[in-house]
Amino acid sequence: xxxxxxxxxxxxxxxxxxxxxxxxxxxxxxxxxxxxxxxxxxxxxxxxxxxxxxxxxxxxxxxxxxxxxxxxxxxxxxxxxxxxxxxxxxxxxxxxxxxxxxxxxxxxxxxxxxxxxxxxxxxxxxxxxxxxxxxxxxxxxxxxxxxxxxxxxxxxxxxxxxxxxxxxxxxxxxxxxxxxxxxxxxxxxxxxxxxxxxxxxxxxxxxxxxxxxxxxxxxxxxxxxxxxxxxxxxxxxxxxxxxxxxxxxxxxxxxxxxxxxxxxxxxxxxxxxxxxxxxxxxxxxxxxxxxxxxxxxxxxxxxxxxxxxxx
Length: 311
What we know:
By secondary structure, the chain is α/β, with parallel strands linked by helices. The chain has helices spanning 4-12, 33-46, 67-76, 116-119, 125-129, 134-155, 174-178, 198-203, 245-255, 268-278, and strands at residues 18-22, 49-55, 58-63, 164-167, 185-191, 208-211, 224-230, 256-265, 283-291, 297-305. It is elongated and about 65 Å long.
């Protein structure tokens, strides 16, 4: 056991974050479980995690805020290997696990997090590092607040009829934030070939993932009530065979439940092609005009998957 999965968890976990472990090594004294537990605690100690609770079959660690200095001391004692300085501008998709610990700046994450509701509106310095300024962030949030009101009016459904939502090109999560007062669960997807804005989404207290829409999205057993695709198709229009517009539409049809909605905004040429193909997918389409971020009118397709069955 080299602990590479625990080292990946350390990379994912923010300072003062918790790791909850529930498994036989936490409480069983037979077979090899005590040996596994000893290796587990030795590694978590070397990674500067602190065991704060252990009861019945569950153990809880906290990743201490003073971790950088602690890690460097442990690295000097050869208790842990430290990774090279990580470049956040590098690709984050399909990257092999590293058998080392990342040491972050001691100021990173050291400030106390605001409440979950306040975090939704906090501008992340990580976004600033990738070239997104505070004004863009604020205007994006205001824009989606307005668009959500239009969307629900055009779909003509109650708030409670939509539960599972996916934003297929989430940027920095403004669409999901605008849905905060709705009883919904939102999966934010950042296309792997676009800017790495996922860290900004996490800083807002939202959930999300990277994905390449030339590949199937791992969704089993979940289907979605609403898919939102904002300028997604145009990004993939030159990707070639296996990733053409029809392929992405087919994947969307798989992901959305019968009578579920798909809202699409994109270039006019793309929208025209989707409008032509939607009937073949048994989608009903309602074409509307709404203002975009530049205050210009653009086409928005409100699609609904029909309820059908093979008899």
